[in-house]
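Protocol step 4 of 6: structure prediction from sequence.
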Amino acid sequence: MDIRYNWDDDADLPHMAAHGVSEIEVEEVLRRPLEDLPGPRDSRIMIGRTVAGRLLKVICVPDQDGMGVFVVTAYDLAGKALKAHHRRMRKRGMR
């Protein structure tokens, strides 16, 4: 899978680096998401755990051919979104 990142020219790093998330962590979530939800304007919201155990929310846009993805941002799941995730997982019997 071809993974491209939203680049922050000022920091010369992918945007998600400002949230303390590495490219490796994003790839871990994309490989095995716990949830794959629709987002605005053809985006996808992937929620998953990294190997280290962090629960991340990755916002991405799949390529039209399905062979790649453009990662807009990624950050730790927290607050209401975290509670909603736990609720959905309990409902599915996954927690």
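Step 5 (inspection) to follow. The longest strand covers residues 68-76.
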